[in-house]
Amino acid sequence: MDLILFSTKYFIMPVNNLNYHSGVETFKSLCIFVLLAFQISANAVEEKLSPAQLQEDFTQLYQDLKSSHINLFINVDEKDYDKYFETISKELTVPLSPLQARIKFQKFVAFGKVAHAYINFPEADYRSFRDAGGRTFPVYVNINGDTWTVSKDYSENALPEGTQITHINSQSVQQLLQTLIKYLSSDTPEIAASILESRLHQYLWLLEQEQGTLQRAYTMTALRENKLVELNINLTTSKTLTSRIDEDKNDTAPKDDALRSFSLLKERVGYLKPGPFYNAENPTDLWDNSQFVTFIDEAFEFFLDEEVSHLIIDVRQNPGGTNSFSDPLIAWFAKAPFKFASKFLIRSSEHAQASNEKRLAQYDDSQNEISNQLAQGYKSNRHGSVFEFHIQPTSPREGKRYNGRVFVLIDRSSYSNAVSLAAIVKDYGFGSIIGEASVDFATTYASMETFSLTNSNIEVGFPKAHIIRPSGDNKAGPVFPDFSLKIDDINEIAAFVLSDRAFQDGSN
């Protein structure tokens, strides 16, 4: 198991394979990593950085992005980036705290509109703020284009789900989105919006930190009974919010909160929720896939014993992970050898090579097969050039295999390797994709590495690779379903896969 750096939208951590796109998580699935992933923020020096130190770090930030990023100017013209660099450089005339510097530098990195170039959200600072009784916005939202609606309201107003929101603090939600997007590394506004749906409170806090204002209440304009009403939203402490969430759970019907599960639905329809493609059960050994593979094998043995003819693989709200987890799953029903990418193009750079050398020093030869191959690639290709890393295909499973129809269920909150799994199934014709289009991309700039800024020690992530989906389509874009479904109830989805409409697709 080779170790390469992996990223989701919120974390940078080591993993054991090459397929790591963005990653956006569901909050519940990923919160277990907070203490591990952001330790660097907790250890950051609290003294303010001088203007000279800030200028030195900022210059290094831009130079190292230009020399290491696989395609820094793919979405933003270099002249515009240069102009933005000059704008921020002129602002670095007074000492800043590490948090203030992190916010400014992240806005600069996010300007490039590539999800895997980013500086981590200051989770440790936010956690300290909350632990000290700090208050944040208690309303969660759904964002669909220009329309914001309530997902959960834990304020005293308790607005019902689906209530439309038009303004927050007298600013239209469309304007607010444009403001908050500046803090978010994302290829599209849709990706940024999907992040804000579960983390609006955090980015409103970040905005307050940059502005130097801490509020105890916001105003919010909502549409109630066809009338616009202005409401007062008192910000809540962590203790109050937790209490209200627990009350809400007690008042609602029980749901399946299992991290991973499999079951039999109606008329020989099987259901598999694989959960995250990393070892979420043991955060100290994130990329050990042995327990996951055992779970997958047990699931498919169950499906074979029950003579399941239609299988739903549910990767909705899935944060992704690595293909060393998903490949053994796909191998159960794959009809031919498969790869997560038709091409994997890597930019040789000083920082990518240095990261690889650290992995070679950290792990023994049995774990370093890919890193040794990368070392040869960096040795053979000058810094700044791009070379192709050849991926070995994964073969279908030997022995018992599942031969029924496969349906992969995705949504806007399917990220990273969950999107990759859907792309493999779709592009190789192993099954059908149902649900709604992902906002995350199958062809993308990813496979992150990092470098640290000299004075602030802020860690900066950059994508070293261009991952092109199995179909060979090199245009960045989401995975679209073969059948668009706006259904949440799994039994209704089971009825669909048995319907005549589902048999119109010939991919199975």
Question: What does this 3D model show about the protein?
Answer:
With about 500 residues, this protein is α+β, with helices and mostly antiparallel strands. Helix content is about 35%, strand content about 20%. The longest helix has 23 residues. The N terminus is likely disordered.
Please compute the radius of gyration using only Cα atoms: 23 Å
Mean pLDDT: 89
Global outline = globular
Helix content bin: 25-40%
Describe the sheet with the most strands.
6 strands, antiparallel
Uncertain segments are: 1-17, 19-45
Q: In whole angstroms, how far apart are the ends?
A: 32 Å
Strand content: 15-25%
E-strand count: 19
| Strand-pairing-aware structural class | alpha+beta
The helix tally amounts to: 16
In short:
With 508 residues, the chain is of the alpha+beta class. The protein has helices spanning 27-30, 34-37, 39-42, 51-68, 78-91, 98-110, 123-131, 173-181, 189-211, 238-251, 290-305, 323-330, 350-362, 369-380, 416-427, 490-497, and strands spanning 4-7, 12-15, 118-119, 139-144, 147-153, 164-168, 171-172, 217-224, 227-234, 261-264, 269-273, 310-314, 343-347, 386-388, 405-410, 432-435, 444-452, 459-468, 483-484. Helices cover 36% and strands 19% of the residues.
Features:
six-stranded antiparallel sheet, 508 residues, disordered N terminus, 16 helices, alpha+beta
Per-chain topology:
Layout: E1 4-7, E2 12-15, H1 27-30, H2 34-37, H3 39-42, H4 51-68, H5 78-91, H6 98-110, E3 118-119, H7 123-131, E4 139-144, E5 147-153, E6 164-168, E7 171-172, H8 173-181, H9 189-211, E8 217-224, E9 227-234, H10 238-251, E10 261-264, E11 269-273, H11 290-305, E12 310-314, H12 323-330, E13 343-347, H13 350-362, H14 369-380, E14 386-388, E15 405-410, H15 416-427, E16 432-435, E17 444-452, E18 459-468, E19 483-484, H16 490-497
Parallel strand pairs: 11-12, 12-15, 15-16, 16-19
Antiparallel strand pairs: 1-2, 3-18, 4-5, 5-6, 6-7, 6-8, 8-9, 10-11, 13-14, 13-18, 17-18
Helix pairs in contact: 12-15, 13-14
